[in-house]
Amino acid sequence: MVCILVICVLSLAGSAAAAPIPITGPTVITHPGQYYIANTVTNSTAPVYIEVQTSGVVIDGKNKVIDGSDDPNSVGVKIVNTAMSIVNVVVKNMVLTDWGTGLLLNDVKDSLIDKVTVSSCTGNGILVQNSRGNTIQNSVLQDNGACGIILFGFSNSNTVQGITAQRNAQDGIRIRFSDSNLIQNNKLLNNKGDGLNFNEQGNYNTVLKNTITSNTVQGIELYRSSDNRITQNTLKNNNNGIYLNTESLNNDIYQNTITCSTYNAILFVGGSDDNVIRGNVLDNNLESGIWLRQSDANVFYDNKIRNNAKEGIWLYDSTGNVLFNNYLFNVNNTNIIGTPSNTWNLTLSEAKSITGGKFSAGNSWGQPNGQGFSQITPDTNRDGICDSRFVIAANNIDWLPLKWKKV
């Protein structure tokens, strides 16, 4: 009986110790534990409302608003300890408005930001620096004076998922000098910069199943950023859909749908070489489906490039590119400037073509008026390959064009 009483007393003592601690004003957290926001805050003038300086902290905002006073140097929630890395912090169910930076993580690992709304800050909604293995999810970043979320300074292997970043004055999400992050299932809408901006040395990241719509600049921009995987995203009504800018190399861009761009679906400039563009749908863009300038040795295949207003593919001073098994259906399918040399077919192979034929090799050339090369050139043996080569321009010949069939 004595032993049972002791266990009960110890159990009650442990429960009391674990009781969440209320936060009622500006707070510095130096001990692990569970905390919650006890009251709404309006027009706080605190330079930092909550500062977390230790690991093992859970803060439940209880969906109460913590409002600042638009001081550009202020921070709503700051998680940092200059003496050590912080791990296992959870911030959830929180609303932050009118701070300089809504939420700041510096040297934080393996932590979770969940169901946080940050709006109307003068700077960034969420700023992540030198922080790894964190998840930011199910959050709303809107109407902030800079980016919705920025990851920079070796913020690697983080996950950003299920967020809405909209109407921010710069980018929805910006990644700078940070690698191996997963950006998935987000909505990046109506930002005045890019929807998603890899702003130098954003490498080895995966961008998966995002909706990126009506951003003033680019849908996705890569600047000196390489080895990224961009797949199954929907991009609509952006300036350019995907923009590879200046030495963006070895990126794999596949199975995206890009429509109604103000200019081009996919744009390459400044030595953006050795990328693979495959299986994308590039429809109804107001200039080109694919636009290359001084970018070489890229590979394009299995793309549907249709109904773009100026041309399907624009090439200027770009050589060594390989384009095969693409379906082109535009008033003007190509515009090639200068005399670059590019390859427009592979050797004939028994692989199903993009138009459903038994053999695959070159590209399908159709036009809305029915006068595209693949539409008017015979295929007498019905093997799915036109009987004649298609001379596109000097040093640019499709030797095995596909017989046209609507897809």
The gist of it:
The protein has 407 residues and is mainly beta.
What keyword list fits this structure?
407 residues; mainly beta; elongated; 25-stranded parallel beta sheet; single chain
Structure notes:
With 407 residues, the chain is mainly β. It contains two helices and 43 strands. The strands form four sheets. It has a 25-stranded parallel beta sheet that branches. The protein has a 14-stranded parallel beta sheet with strand order 2-4-7-10-13-16-19-22-25-28-31-34-37-40, with no helix packed on it. β42 and β43 (396-398) form a beta hairpin. The chain starts with a helix and ends in a 9-residue tail after the last strand.
Secondary structure: helix percent: under 10%
DSSP, total strands = 43
Largest sheet: 25 strands, parallel
Portion of residues in beta strands equals: 35-45%
Q: What do the pLDDT scores average to?
A: 95
Name the poorly predicted regions. 1-16
Which word captures the global form? elongated
Distance between the termini: 80 Å
Helix and strand layout, with pairings?
Blueprint: H1 2-17, E1 21-23, E2 27-29, E3 33-37, E4 48-52, E5 57-60, E6 65-67, E7 75-79, E8 86-87, E9 89-97, E10 101-106, E11 108-109, E12 112-119, E13 126-129, E14 135-137, E15 140-142, E16 149-152, E17 159-161, E18 164-166, E19 173-176, E20 182-184, E21 187-189, E22 196-199, E23 206-208, E24 211-213, E25 218-223, E26 229-231, E27 234-236, E28 240-245, E29 252-254, E30 257-259, E31 266-269, E32 276-278, E33 281-283, E34 288-293, E35 299-301, E36 304-306, E37 311-316, E38 322-324, E39 327-329, E40 334-337, E41 364-366, H2 373-376, E42 390-393, E43 396-398
Parallel strand pairs: 1-3, 2-4, 3-5, 4-7, 5-9, 6-9, 7-10, 8-11, 9-12, 10-13, 12-14, 12-15, 13-16, 14-17, 15-18, 16-19, 17-20, 18-21, 19-22, 20-23, 21-24, 22-25, 23-26, 24-27, 25-28, 26-29, 27-30, 28-31, 29-32, 30-33, 31-34, 32-35, 33-36, 34-37, 35-38, 36-39, 37-40, 39-41
Antiparallel strand pairs: 42-43
